[in-house]
Design goal:
seven-stranded mixed beta sheet; mainly beta; 3% helix; single chain
Length: 115
């Protein structure tokens, strides 16, 4: 009920584009920062991008200039536009809300980038 739900993952060719969506509840979305994280096969989960309630953004160096995070506060939804994806972007992508000093995680969506 309060867990964010990711969608939009799938198979994409290198150099293509993909947009991930994350729908969250009003309770955890409103006034809070939201972030996208990913976990490549055999690796630890890592930050991809983060956006504050006011729209300030931060990106991992590996995705700067390629990915864009945005949010629609009226829809309680955060997006990750994946431009120019590379095979190394293949991972399970997770959405999370920064809520009361804790992270509320979604279940993730698989993104596979083919070369």
């Amino acid at each position: 009920q309060v867990q964010p739900v990711e969608s939009g993952g799938g198979l994409v060719q290198a150099g293509g584009s993909l947009r991930l969506s994350c729908a969250a509840s009003i309770r955890i979305f409103s006034g809070n920062a939201m972030g996208w994280y990913r976990q490549p096969p055999g690796k630890q989960r890592e930050l991809v991008a983060r956006i504050t309630s006011g729209g300030d953004t931060n990106y991992a160096d590996s995705v700067k200039g390629r990915f864009t995070i945005s949010r629609d506060n009226a829809k309680n939804t955060v997006y990750l536009q994946m431009g120019s994806p590379k095979p190394e972007d293949t991972a399970v992508y997770y959405c999370a809300a920064d809520y009361r000093s804790s992270m509320i995680w979604g279940q993730g969506t698989q993104v596979t980038v083919s070369s």
